[in-house]
Design a protein that fits this description.
Strand order of the largest sheet: 3-2-1-4-5
Protein name: Molybdenum-pterin-binding protein 2
Organism: Komagataeibacter europaeus
Largest sheet: 5 strands, antiparallel
Number of domains: 1
Number of strands: 5
CATH class: Mainly Beta
Shape: globular
Pfam families: TOBE (PF03459)
Distance between the termini: 9 Å
Keywords: Molybdenum
CATH superfamily: RNA polymerase II/Efflux pump adaptor protein, barrel-sandwich hybrid domain
Strand content: over 45%
Length: 67
């Protein structure tokens, strides 16, 4: 996957907390945790699971998740 965002931090998913429409995905990046708010649909589409590798992609004030 190629994207324009330069701030990409690899880590491991430690938690996925689902709400009514939005999930909070926590990624351990080596002792620090980054949390992204993404749609429940995105969690399902990306097949995110606790313990799997993921990348926090930071653009401006948003954090996205890519696998």
């Amino acid at each position: 996957m190629k994207i324009s965002a330069r701030n990409q931090i690899a880590g491991k998913i430690t938690a996925i907390t689902k709400g009514a429409t939005t999930s909070h995905v926590s990624i351990d990046i080596g002792g620090a945790i980054i949390t992204a708010s993404i749609t429940n649909e995105a969690v399902a589409d990306l097949k995110l699971k606790i313990g799997e590798k993921a990348t926090a992609i930071i653009k401006a004030s948003d954090v996205m998740v890519g696998v």
